[in-house]
């Protein structure tokens, strides 16, 4: 069985595995819903008492046995079903995450125009309810009576939303009507699967080199967005809302449940990936140190992403 080229490759791969959409869009949303800074208190408690121990257990399990999430259960065959469950979960995650990457590729390609297609409401797919910030002029809007203005506000949809729902996805009117295959999305989905294949074609030898870019580039993007965000009006108000704790919500059991689910979702415990990646470590590698570094890096990224979003 092969090994990682060096320990940095394993740490970067594990960080890239743990740090993802859950850090950037799910953690800030949970902070917003569960009392701002007060949510971080149960979040870090769950990290210390649930996240890091489970993370360490999976790394040590995979490293000791040098087997993936299926073969590792030879230690106790009665739990082999757990390995198959991990495999099914990882398969589902691979499918839907590639759809997200496909959407990212699509928007990357269509944004290479002088005027973005979701800027105005003058496109064939737009409805009369569409109201963009850059459409029309202020004087004509001021002439509208108050009743009409209220009705328009209630039904208003943005050009970006209509572009997404009516053009990119071309949503059908009923679940029984499957609609047609969107060839641009199908092409982007094919590109995303090809990229994944090229990253994994030689196992850890190729994936270990790819992570030098894929694990570090999100931090570059987050930093660019953070610098841009703090220059906008009202940035300090958003950050203060993010940091100011609403202590009354900390007594709510749902807040603690959200904190626990976010730790499991973010670290990727029980999905099989950690066991498999650790199985390529050398037998005497200090996996305890790695689990501490990766877990803290993952949660620090969530907090940093919260600053960016708020």
From TrEMBL:
The chain crosses the membrane at residues 40-61, 82-109, 216-243, 263-280, 292-309. It comes from the Eukaryota. It is found in: Membrane. This is Transporter. Its main location: membrane. GO terms for biological process: amino acid import across plasma membrane. Disulfide bonds join 121-130. It comes from Charadrius vociferus. It is a multi-pass membrane protein. Keywords: Disulfide bond, Membrane, Metal-binding, Sodium, Symport, Transmembrane, Transmembrane helix, Transport. Belongs to the sodium:neurotransmitter symporter (SNF) (TC 2.A.22) family. Na(+) binds at residues 16, 18-19, 23, 266, 298. GO terms for molecular function: amino acid:sodium symporter activity; metal ion binding. GO terms for cellular component: plasma membrane.
